[in-house]
Amino acid sequence: MYVLGIESSCDETASAIVTEQKKVLSNVIYSQISEHGAFGGVVPEIAARAHLEKIDLVVAKALKDAALDISEITAVAGTCGPGLMGGLIVGSTFAKTIAMAMNIPFIAANHIEAHALSIRLTEDVHFPYLLLLVSGGHCQLCVVHGVDRFEVLGKTIDDSVGEAFDKIAKFLGLGYPGGPALEKEAVNGNDQAFPLPSPLCRGKSCDFSFAGLKTAVLTASQGHKTAQDKADLCASFQKTAARILAYKTKQAIDVCRSKNIQLTVVVAAGGVASNEIVRRELRKVCSSCELSFSAPPARLCTDNGAMIAWLGVEKLRINQMHNLNFAPRPRWPMGE
Ligand code: KG4
Ligand code: ZN
Predict the structure, then answer these.
(1) What is the pLDDT of residue 86?
(2) Where would I find the beta strands (DSSP E) of the chain?
(3) Which residue, 119, 38, 118, 51, is CA-closest to 83?
C-alpha cells in the first residue's frame, strides 16, 4: 500500500509517500519562511498563492524521491482542515483531482488528528495513550482511544503555547518562525533570571492559559535591553512554558488514573513538541508517574506530509474514505 499525503493548511507545502509498514518513502517540504519573514508571521493571501505555485512541484518530487509512478499510488490523503482556507482549497483540490484521475480512494485528513497519530508512524504505540498536542494553532490534552476516538481533557482558554513562542519572538526581534528562534536564543540564557507567572497552575484543571505569561514576558523586557537580558528572558519563558506543559500533563495523567484508563504511554506532538526543554520537562514528569514518554522526531513534529499520508493509512485500515465533494473546513475539531 502506497499512500500519498498532501499538506497545505498553513505555511508549508508538503507531500510524502508512506507504506502500511511505516516506511516513509519520501517526505518533501517546501517552507514559505522567506515569503512571510518580512511580515513577522503568516500572511494568508501570500500563503495561498505560494501553495498554488509549488504544489505540483512538491508532489512530483515526492513521487520521484519514492521512485514511484503516480499509477502505483493506492490512495491519496489531503488536509481538509483546520487551517487557512486558501491553502486548504489548493491542497485538497489537488488531492481530489489525483484521486479522481487515477480512480483511487480519497481521504479528507484532519490536520490535528494527523499530528495526534503521527507517533504511530515512528513507533509501535498502542491505544489508549495520552496526547499533549502543542502547535501554533492548538494546545490541548486528550486521550487517544482509537484512530477516530479522542477524549479531550483540557485545552487553552486563550493563546496556544506556540502562539506565545511566536509572539514573544516577534516582540524581541528574533524573527519568524518564532519557536525555533527562541529556543536557539535561550541556549545562552539563565532560565532563573526572570521570575514569571504560571497561570492556572494551582488546581487540578487540565486547561491552559498562556496570555498572561506572554504579557508578563513583554512587560519584563522593558528596561532590559542587553543581549544577555534577551537570552535570559527567552530561557526563563521557555522553562516556565515547559513546566506549565509538564504540570498540566501530570493533571491529565491523574484524571486518566481516576477514570481507570490504562495509558500505554504519554505522547507529545505538534511543532512545540520539537523543543528540547519541553521534551526534557515532559520526560521528567512522566518518569515520576512511571509512564514512558514518546514524541516523533523533530522533523515530524512540525507540519509535514508524512503525517497526512500516515493518517490516510490509518483511515484506510478502518475503511474510512471520503467523497470528493468533501468541503474544506477551516475549523474542524478532532474526531468530528
Ligand atoms: O505543528 P506546527 O508546525 O504547525 C501548526 O499546526 O500550527 O507548529 C508550529 C508551531 C509554531 O508556533 C512554532 O513557533 C512552534 O510550533 N515551534 C516551536 C519549535 N519549533 C516549532 N516552538 C518551540 N520550540 C521549537 N523548537
Ligand atoms: Zn500542525
Answers:
(1) 98
(2) 2-7, 12-19, 24-31, 75-81, 106-110, 129-134, 139-146, 149-155, 266-269, 293-294
(3) 51
Q: How far is the CA of 325 from the centre of ligand 2 (A)?
A: 24
How many Å lie between the centroid of ligand 2 and the Cα of residue 271?
6
Whether the Cβ atoms of residue 94 and residue 14 lie closer than 8 Å to each other: no
User: Which residues, 6 or more positions from 88, have their beta carbon under 8 angstroms from its beta carbon?
Assistant: 8, 9, 79, 80, 81, 328, 329, 330
Domains and CATH numbers, the chain: 2-117+300-317 (3.30.420.40), 126-295 (3.30.420.40)
Instruction: Label the pairing between strands 149-155 and 24-31.
Output: unpaired
Pick the atom of ligand 1 nearest to 111's CA: 6
Q: C-alpha cell of 213? A: 505569561
CA distance 111 to 250: 26
Q: Which residues contact 173 (CB under 8 A, 6 or more apart)?
A: none
pTM over 0.90: yes
pLDDT tens digits along 59-77: 999 999 999 999 999 999 9
Q: Where are the alpha helices (DSSP H) in 66-210?
A: 85-102, 111-117, 119-122, 161-171, 178-186
Rounded to whole angstroms, how far apart are CA atoms 63 and 238? 39
How far does the centroid of ligand 2 lie from the alpha carbon of residue 190, in Å? 30
Whether 105 is in the pocket of ligand 1, judged by its Cβ within 6 Å, is no
Q: What is the CA radius of gyration of the chain?
A: 20
pLDDT given for residue 26 in this prediction: 98
Of 94, 64, 61, the residue nearest 79 (C-alpha): 94
Compute the distance between CA of residue 71 and CA of residue 67 in angstroms, rounded to an integer. 12
Q: Tell me how far apart the alpha carbons of residues 48 and 70 are, in angstroms, rounded to a whole number.
A: 25
- pLDDT grade for 175, boundaries at 50, 70 and 90: confident
